[in-house]
Automatic annotation (TrEMBL):
PANTHER family: 60S ACIDIC RIBOSOMAL PROTEIN P1, LARGE RIBOSOMAL SUBUNIT PROTEIN P1. GO terms for molecular function: protein kinase activator activity; ribonucleoprotein complex binding; structural constituent of ribosome. This is 60S acidic ribosomal protein P1. It holds the Pfam family Ribosomal_60s. GO terms for biological process: cytoplasmic translation; translational elongation. Belongs to the eukaryotic ribosomal protein P1/P2 family.
Length: 122
């Protein structure tokens, strides 16, 4: 019976693990694959990087239900909720009154004091 070889590669540090999971998620997104921990781990393993399993689970949970394309384009990954919020706020802005002009608060001007700078600008 053949024994599975133990992975002897060192575990990547936090920054490398995060970067590896990010790139793996982008690869899966570009390939129209579901972003799940097992697939993230496969992509990372193919890149010859070893990360702690918690990282793939964290990325799966963070991206679950999100549209990665919207995240990349700055739409916060939640387009339907954003559109609904915009529609409900539109009537409120139409009913808003014109702002009243701000009243100027005048301060009593204090005379400037001569400060000795120790010959700095002489």
């Amino acid at each position: 019976m053949a024994r599975a070889q133990k992975d002897t590669r060192p575990i990547a540090d936090q920054a490398t693990s995060e970067a590896a999971c990010t790139y793996a998620a982008l690869i899966l997104y570009e390939d129209n694959q579901e972003i799940v921990a097992s697939k993230l781990a496969q992509v990372i393993k193919a890149a010859n990087i070893r990360v702690e399993p918690i990282w793939t689970k964290v990325f799966e949970k963070a991206l679950k239900g999100k549209r990665v394309g919207d995240l990349l384009h700055g739409n916060a990954g939640n387009a339907p909720a954003t559109q609904a919020a915009a529609q409900t706020s539109a009537p409120a802005t139409q009913q808003a009154k014109a702002p009243e002009p701000a009243k100027e608060v005048k301060k009593a001007e204090e005379p400037e004091e001569d400060v000795d700078m120790g010959g700095l600008f002489d």
